[in-house]
Design brief:
single chain; alpha/beta; eight-stranded parallel β-sheet; 9 helices; globular; DNA nuclease activity; TatD-like
Length: about 260
């Protein structure tokens, strides 16, 4: 019997409204992914769109969800916490994200990032929502903030740390989401972290339109390429791909409390 290419796979983090340059193309890509069996996606946002525009875009798709938050590199862009709070109870909104700390640039205001992160950690707790983290060159600072707040449902998006960072996040109860970076030749440290992480704490993502996996490097990324992330994770974990797909689906449903989708 024919099985769809993406059957029961999940793209845990992408930016659909930034893909391929137009709303129509983004919708075609999304519809193609679902036709090929994709179970669900989470869209992590586009700072140029309002939250209402995002909700309207994804409303036709039962298993397309969004997270809402102020990206740490968007501190100078207009952002309305009032608007954010106004939609956090919408069924399509299943988390706060992507939020965190990014100290990779010299010209950023670290204090402003930390203040915004603290506010959004508090909102995630208040609304009992998972929090999707963006952490770059700021592991210790972000880890301590999350640990202090004690948020129970945390996922580190596009995890690119090593085994030691993975251990500390996992010890806090966090999930680790791996992107196409896991397919790159220079990804040994990340692959070591993946080898350490238990399969019941792993998620897979594209971060489309960024970080296109091998063998499609140089092309825009989109959700159907999440299959290459799954294949590499299954290979590195030495587990059958079907077992990985089933476990990642269970992880997703558990983290976001979406068991009604089964």
């Amino acid at each position: 019997m024919y099985e769809p290419l993406l059957k029961d796979m999940i793209d845990h983090h992408c930016h659909m409204m930034q893909t391929q340059g137009s709303t129509e193309n983004a919708m075609q890509l999304l519809e193609s992914a679902f036709q090929q069996g994709l179970f669900a996606i989470i869209d992590a946002g586009d700072a140029t769109k309002t939250q209402q525009e995002r909700l309207e875009f994804f409303s036709p798709y039962e298993r397309a969800f969004i997270v809402i938050g102020q990206h740490p590199l968007d501190m100078e862009r207009p952002f309305s916490y009032e608007e954010m709070v106004g939609v956090l109870s919408e069924p399509k909104v299943i988390g706060v994200g992507e939020v965190g700390l990014d100290f990779s640039r010299q010209d950023i205001d670290r204090r402003k990032q930390q203040t915004a992160f603290d506010v959004q950690l508090t909102l995630a707790n208040q609304y009992d929502l998972p929090i999707m983290l963006h952490i770059r060159d700021a592991f210790d600072e972000a880890y301590q903030m999350v640990k202090r707040v004690g948020h129970p449902r945390v996922v580190v998006h596009c995890f690119t740390g090593g085994k030691d960072e993975a251990k500390r996040w996992l010890d806090l109860g966090a999930y680790l989401s791996f992107s196409g970076v896991i397919t790159f030749k220079n990804a040994q440290e990340i692959q070591d972290a993946l080898a350490y992480a238990p399969i019941d704490r792993i998620l897979c993502e594209t971060d489309a339109p960024y970080l296109t996996p091998v063998p499609h490097r140089g092309k825009p990324n989109h959700p159907i390429y999440v299959s290459h992330v799954y294949e590499q994770v299954a290979h590195l974990k030495t587990v059958p791909i079907d077992n990985l797909v089933a476990q990642v689906k269970e992880n997703f449903l558990s983290l976001y409390q979406l068991y009604h989708l089964e």
